[in-house]
Amino acid sequence: MLTNVKAEVQDLIRNSPFASEIARCMDGSFYIESYQNISDNRGQFESLFCKPSNTLSSALLIDREILTIISKYPTVQARTLRFAQAEIRSNSPRLNPNLIIVVHCDPSGNQKLRTWGREQGIVVIPFYTNPSLDFHGAVLA
């Protein structure tokens, strides 16, 4: 049961193994307000708008939703951050402009994402997962 997911998007998230597992992992910390599967000239990504719990919001001093991007590509590229920036701009002021979460499948992607984010003034919280594993294999390094 996806108790931390807005009713209108529960079926969409259930149809995405990655998004549904992320929602389960975020239970208690975030409430998922929105889900989209977007394909455009930057690639194909899934996005979640995640509202932090009151406790997490107070601890991190944030009052807006956090964009979570799911990238299933074997190699993370800078276009992931360009996609995130475009999503943040088009959903301003709803989304936090300088903090995103990126779930990806690139074994060396965590450092790349942090570096690219720093260059753009965005704090990137990267999570690597091996696409052949379930999401309980996610690694924050």
Physical arrangement of strands within the biggest beta sheet: 1-2-3-4-5
Give the CA-based shape: globular
Described by strand count, sense and barrel closure, the largest sheet is: 5 strands, mixed
Helix content: 25-40%
Average pLDDT, rounded to a whole number, is: 90
Looking at the structure, the CATH topology is Dna-directed Rna Polymerases I, Ii, And Iii 27 Kd Polypeptide, Chain: A, domain 1
Strand content: 25-35%
What is the tally of helical segments? 5
Low-confidence stretches: none
Radius of gyration: 14 Å
Can you write the helix and strand succession as a string? Answer: HHEEHEHEHE
Say how many strands there are: 5
Structural class: alpha/beta
The end-to-end span amounts to 29 Å
Structure, explained:
This protein is α/β, with parallel strands linked by helices and 141 residues long. The protein has a single domain, classed as Dna-directed Rna Polymerases I, Ii, And Iii 27 Kd Polypeptide, Chain: A, domain 1. It is 33% helix and 30% strand. The protein has 5 helices and 5 strands. It has helices at residues 10-14, 17-26, 54-60, 79-90, 109-120, and strands spanning 30-40, 43-52, 65-70, 95-104, 123-128. It has a 5-stranded mixed β-sheet with strand order 1-2-3-4-5, sandwiched between helices.
Key descriptive features of the protein:
141 residues, alpha/beta, Dna-directed Rna Polymerases I, Ii, And Iii 27 Kd Polypeptide, Chain: A, domain 1, five-stranded mixed β-sheet, 5 helices, 5 strands, 30% strand, globular
